Amino acid sequence: QKEVEQDPGPLSVPEGAIVSLNCTYSNSAFQYFMWYRQYSRKGPELLMYTYSSGNKEDGRFTAQVDKSSKYISLFIRDSQPSDSATYLCAMGIAGGTSYGKLTFGQGTILTVHP
Amino acid sequence: DSGVTQTPKHLITATGQRVTLRCSPRSGDLSVYWYQQSLDQGLQFLIQYYNGEERAKGNILERFSAQQFPDLHSELNLSSLELGDSALYFCASSPGGTDTQYFGPGTRLTVL
Fold first, then answer.
1. Do residues B94 and B101 make contact, with C-beta atoms less than 8 angstroms apart?
2. Percent of chain B, pLDDT > 90?
3. How many CA atoms lie within 13 A of B2 on its CB side?
4. In this predicted structure, what is the pLDDT of residue B80?
5. How far is B69 from chain A (nearest CA, A)?
6. DSSP 8-state secondary structure symbol assigned to residue A83
7. How confident is residue A98, by pLDDT bands cut at 50, 70 and 90?
């Protein structure tokens, strides 16, 4: 079983829809959580960073972390065709031998069609 | 543009060869990370350096090695290349050890 599970999709939605992307994890030692967006043949681009359970909002994006359920989500409101990309969740541990290492989900391919 | 630069963008080589990938972190960032991305394995952490010292290691093969130089740029050396080493190799950097990581554009390695 992988430490981080993410549904690869693909997910196809109409423009303006609310998109929900999710990851589950098994390692309770994960302390911080990130969402990256990756366009085809480009490097991952950081979207959101959270360190605690709860919600964090930035523009059209909301990141949600539930440490008790080992579940994180990214919501995209008013989705746009330019949001079409692969979304990767990532998690890290702030100490020990895994210091600095990010563990990524497989990524969810999202297409927003006009 | 994240501010992280990687060279070369593309690399095509043959099995058994050795290549060097180069990364320059964002100005002021002390940590450099290397990741490998393939279709079947996804994005996998290889190794981290912090201010010249190795800080964390992932499932990096013995044929692979890395170092970070005094000017903080880093190189990833891949030797005795195999077909399965074909992948995208990303470098990322961060100010400290566990801050948010900013990724470069990647080097696409093709081993024939």
1. yes
2. 85
3. 29
4. 97
5. 19
6. G
7. low
Tokens 């880093």 -> residue: B74
> Residue A103: what pLDDT?
93
Looking at CA atoms only, how far is residue A4 from chain B in angstroms? 11
| pLDDT of B51 strictly over 80 | yes
The 10s digit of each residue's pLDDT in B9-26 is: 999 999 999 999 999 999
CB < 8 Å to A44, chain B: 43, 90, 103
- Region label for B106, one of left (φ > 0), alpha (ψ between -120 and 50) or beta (otherwise): left
The residue count for chain B: 112
Q: What is the DSSP letter of A60?
A: T
Interchain contact, A43 vs B105, CB within 8 Å: yes
Of A44, A99, A105, the CB nearest to B56: A99
Q: What is the pLDDT of residues A64-92, one digit of tens each?
A: 999 999 999 999 999 999 999 999 999 99
CA atoms within 13 A on the CB side of A40: 5
Residues of B near A (Cβ–Cβ under 8 Å) read: 2, 4, 31, 33, 35, 42-45, 48, 50, 55-58, 90, 94, 97-98, 100-106, 108
Token couple for B11: 């690399």
Task: Look at the block and give the residue holding tokens 């394995």.
Answer: B41
Cα A95 vs. chain centroid, distance in angstroms? 22
Rg (CA), chain A: 14
